[in-house]
Design brief:
The structure is a single chain. This protein is α+β, with helices and mostly antiparallel strands. It has one domain (4-64). The protein is 18% helix and 24% strand. It has 1 helix and 3 strands, in the order ββαβ. A 3-stranded antiparallel sheet has the order 2-1-3, with helices on one face. Strand 1 and strand 2 (22-27) form a beta hairpin. The longest helix is centred in the last third of the chain and has 12 residues, at 40-51.
Length: 66
């Protein structure tokens, strides 16, 4: 289980080909996502994003939410 700081960060996978597209998931400051508390759809999107690194998506980056 992650603490309340989780809501202040997101792990972003950006599209290599289409600016403004990609995936973002709540994470902790180290970029760890809480798979156990994700919906099935979000979990599937997360695994897809990881599989597409370098093919369709960039390596993920932790971003601070404002």
């Amino acid at each position: 289980m992650m603490d309340s700081a989780t809501s202040h960060f997101q792990l972003c996978f950006r599209s290599l080909f289409d600016s403004g597209r990609g995936f973002a998931f709540p994470c902790d400051p180290k970029g760890q996502v809480d798979l156990d508390n994700m919906s099935e759809r979000a979990r599937n999107n997360y695994f897809y994003a990881r599989a597409m690194i370098g093919r369709e998506l960039t390596y993920p980056a932790v971003e601070v939410l404002h």
